[in-house]
């Protein structure tokens, strides 16, 4: 039903094509970005959750 | 550099943890009750407030917005403070956020059983509550961004990106889908009608799954999995790709392969290849989680938190594999309207959301209470009960879905439907419903054990409400000539929000513009007329009782459906349907052409006792419809609202609609009297019969007059 209705719109096919192209371009850009990121930065970033953590048994200081 | 001392707010985290657990138990208990009603309808105790059709929205909303919602806030409030090395932006807003959200949940728990609903799945709450949701959600946003802005950690960890995307997308989805015209304090009509309403609603539905059940939980996964395993995520690069492709795909590429096919060949080919590629980010995310545990799988054996996480992440992978498969046309033709869909969502809900929430609770509560978990054995038992529960839940439902669908489609050698009576296909799968309820009971028992375990843990420790932390303040100006653009983006929350919003918005626009073009493009059908006042009243009762939870109004253009139900549904038939009532599940037969199929008296008797008219029926009786009266004085306001929305009633029709209503009601009363049924015209059942008898008849009229 939804598909048939959308098919009846004039020029509707341009929208998925636009989205396909934008998505494709962004996807490629993101992949390149991610691959080009500096190793040290990656190491710094991925350790953010792990540092400065209170663990069980630490003295509690309120 | 000077160290600044500050305190993390653990109390708000604890409060959300309580809410998550308690609402989880409530939501799952309601689920268990309605699952049981599917094979034992009497469990509704004969009263409206506990009947399947009213409780099912309560179950779905409780699990999604109360259980998972509070789970999101719990997980975000704990992790965001640590990731930003800052206390939550405002203590008062934390409190308003918490209590506001609980109040919304309570109002849902009150309004749904009372039959106050908009009739749009997963967006059933009425307009005042919709506004409250928007307000509280914005407060959550202020908390989120306020904390990010005053952070002491330069970079925004990937979890925060997922939180931002969640906030931005849900705001957009909720607002666009909830645009409705109030008729009275607790009644409104959506401004969209028919096909357009369906498009907006399922754009919302699809993306709510993405941005309420998936992205925030991925943010939690990227924080809590490394924490629990005490090692960084497998690949941070992969998480970047995961994030950006996911928000792009979900908001816009996702629904596409469902929607269009009038595409040039090259685009279709690229699209298909791409759809397959799109599995990559989802599975990339899953593998990223699982591979974090590489070389540490021995830990999984001992650590119940990791066990829950491994199953959760695996369930995420399963559900995101199944989702795209279900959107393939030929598979969808088989799966749609059956229990297959229900099984699919429960792999996600029980496995992914449920188990990840449990793992976070088991990890977090001992932490903020500075103690150890009360009983690891009990937690282990919960794990196995839950795990077996999921299997016992979903396997029978896959079986039921496929069985029933094949029965619907089967023809005898003579070319007739092999199972012409819909009820035959229901009775066939009732044993599966029983097994499913057992699976639910196992899962639910596990959750109750967790509740006990957590309470004992809390009693054994003391809450560190204010957890002291130290970090240097962030220097105001920071420039690194070598920095890349993405790093620049990570440091700038405002820009980041902006780009996320743009990404989501472009996606939304690309999808929504055709939707808004539709109104002028739906082929109008001459004979389709607005509902009479009595039919409109009956339609409102249909919505209030939640009939759409079990009955669709959408006959697909398959021979097996046109044979069973009649002419397939046309877009032009729904132009006056505010809201659309296509439904998504056929626990009972489709009703799109029910009009004129049975006499009025049949409907009356069937509503009072479905079992009497169709032995073996699992439909609950609705005797109160013959006792409760509708409010005739509301009708002029409803007619005015419909006129405002573009339904072509004659000028000043609101002044004479009551008269027409009474005339039509008296006709039905007279019909019923002939069958020795005496009832007055002001009863709800009269209006409902008027609506049922109208449904789908406009086209029949057309074919008669056309000859």
Task: Give an account of the 3D structure.
The complex is a heterodimer of chains A (62) and B (707). Chain A has one domain. In chain A, 60% of the residues lie in helices and 0% in strands. With 62 residues, chain A is an all-alpha fold. Chain A is built from three helices and no strands. With 707 residues, chain B is mainly α. Chain B is 66% helix and 3% strand. Chain B has 24 helices and four strands. Chain B has a two-stranded antiparallel ribbon with strand order 1-4. In chain B, β2 and β3 (187-190) form a beta hairpin. In chain B, α6 runs parallel beside α12 and α22 (657-674) crosses α23 (684-694). The interface between A and B is large, with 47 and 78 residues.
Feature tags:
heterodimer; A: 62 residues; mainly alpha; 3 helices; 0% strand; elongated; B: 707 residues; two-stranded antiparallel sheet; globular; disordered C terminus
Strand order of the largest sheet of chain B: 1-4
Mean pLDDT of chain B: 90
Q: Report the largest inter-chain contact.
A: A-B, 47 and 78 residues
Radius of gyration of chain B using CA atoms only = 27 Å
- Beta content of chain A: under 5%
**Succession of helices and strands of chain B:** EHHHHHEEHHHHHHHHHEHHHHHHHHHH
Please bin the fraction of helical residues of chain A.
55-70%
Which structural class is indicated by helix and strand composition of chain A? Answer: mainly alpha
Number of helices of chain A: 3
Taken together, the total number of domains of chain A comes to: 1
Q: What composes the largest sheet of chain B?
A: 2 strands, antiparallel
Give the overall silhouette of chain A. elongated
């Amino acid at each position: 039903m939804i598909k048939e209705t959308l098919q009846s719109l004039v020029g509707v096919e341009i929208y998925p094509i636009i989205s396909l192209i934008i998505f494709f371009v962004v996807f490629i850009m993101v992949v390149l970005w991610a691959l080009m990121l500096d190793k040290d930065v990656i190491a710094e970033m991925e350790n953010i959750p792990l540092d400065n953590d209170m663990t069980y048994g630490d003295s509690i200081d309120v | 550099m000077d160290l600044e001392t500050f305190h993390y707010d653990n109390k708000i985290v604890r409060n959300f943890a309580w809410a998550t657990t308690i609402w989880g138990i409530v939501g799952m208990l309601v689920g268990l009750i309605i699952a049981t009603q599917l094979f034992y309808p009497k469990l509704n105790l004969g009263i409206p407030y506990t009947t399947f059709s009213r409780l099912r929205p309560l179950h779905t909303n409780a699990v999604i917005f109360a259980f998972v919602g509070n789970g999101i806030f719990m997980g975000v409030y704990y992790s965001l403070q640590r990731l930003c090395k800052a206390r939550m932006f405002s203590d008062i807003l934390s409190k308003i956020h918490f209590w506001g959200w609980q109040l919304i949940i309570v109002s849902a728990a009150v309004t749904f059983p009372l039959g106050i609903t908009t009739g749009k799945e997963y967006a059933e709450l009425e307009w005042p509550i919709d506004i409250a949701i928007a307000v509280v959600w914005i407060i959550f946003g202020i908390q989120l961004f306020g904390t990010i802005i005053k952070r002491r950690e330069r970079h925004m960890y990937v979890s925060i990106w997922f939180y931002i995307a969640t906030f931005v997308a849900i705001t957009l989805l909720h607002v666009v889908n909830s645009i409705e015209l109030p008729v009275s304090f607790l009644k409104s009509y959506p401004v969209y009608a028919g096909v357009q309403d369906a498009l907006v609603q399922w754009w919302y539905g699809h993306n709510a799954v993405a941005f309420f059940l998936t992205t925030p939980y991925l943010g939690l996964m990227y924080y809590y999995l490394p924490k629990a395993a005490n090692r960084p995520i497998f690949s941070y690069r992969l998480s970047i790709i995961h994030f950006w492709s996911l928000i792009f795909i979900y908001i816009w590429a996702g629904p596409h392969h469902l929607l269009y096919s009038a595409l040039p060949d090259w685009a279709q080919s690229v699209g298909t290849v791409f759809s397959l590629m799109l599995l990559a980010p989802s599975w990339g995310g899953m593998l990223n989680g699982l591979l974090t545990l590489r070389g540490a799988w021995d830990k999984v054996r001992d650590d119940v938190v990791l066990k829950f996480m491994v199953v959760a992440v695996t369930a995420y992978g399963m559900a995101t594999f199944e989702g795209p498969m279900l959107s393939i046309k030929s598979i969808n033709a088989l799966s749609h309207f059956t229990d297959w869909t229900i099984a699919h969502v429960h792999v996600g809900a029980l496995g992914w959301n449920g188990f990840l929430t449990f793992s976070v609770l088991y990890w977090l509560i001992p932490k903020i209470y500075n103690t150890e978990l009360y009983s690891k054995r009990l937690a282990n038992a919960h794990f196995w009960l839950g795990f077996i529960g999921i299997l016992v839940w979903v396997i029978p439902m896959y079986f039921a879905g496929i069985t029933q669908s094949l029965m619907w489609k089967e023809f005898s050698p003579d070319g007739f439907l092999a199972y012409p009576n819909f009820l035959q296909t229901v009775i066939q799968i009732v044993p599966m419903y029983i097994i499913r309820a057992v699976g639910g009971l196992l899962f639910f028992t596990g959750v109750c054990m967790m509740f006990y375990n957590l309470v004992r843990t809390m009693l054994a420790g003391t809450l560190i409400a204010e957890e002291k932390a130290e970090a240097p303040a962030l220097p105001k100006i920071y420039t690194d000539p070598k920095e890349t653009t993405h790093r620049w983006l990570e440091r700038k929350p405002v820009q980041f929000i902006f780009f996320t919003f743009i990404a989501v918005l472009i996606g939304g626009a690309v999808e929504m513009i055709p939707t808004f073009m539709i109104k002028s493009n739906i082929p109008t059908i001459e004979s389709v007329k607005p509902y009479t006042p009595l039919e409109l009243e009956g339609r409102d009762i249909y919505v209030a009782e939640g009939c759409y939870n079990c009955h669709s109004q959408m006959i697909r253009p398959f021979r097996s459906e046109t044979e069973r139900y009649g002419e397939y549904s046309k877009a032009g038939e729904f132009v006056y349907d505010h809201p659309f009532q296509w439904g998504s599940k056929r626990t009972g037969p489709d009703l799109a052409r029910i009009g004129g199929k049975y006499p009025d008296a049949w409907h009356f008797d069937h509503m009072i006792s479905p079992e009497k008219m169709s032995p073996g029926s699992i439909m609950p009786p609705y005797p109160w419809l013959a006792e409760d009266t509708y409010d005739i004085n509301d009708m002029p306001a409803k007619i005015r609202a419909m006129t405002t929305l573009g339904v072509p009633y004659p000028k000043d029709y609101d002044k004479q609609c009551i008269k027409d209503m009474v005339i039509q009601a008296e006709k039905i009363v007279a019909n019923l009297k002939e069958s020795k049924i005496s009832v007055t015209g002001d009863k709800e059942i009269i209006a409902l019969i008027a609506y049922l008898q109208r449904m789908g008849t406009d086209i029949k009229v057309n074919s008669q007059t056309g000859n």
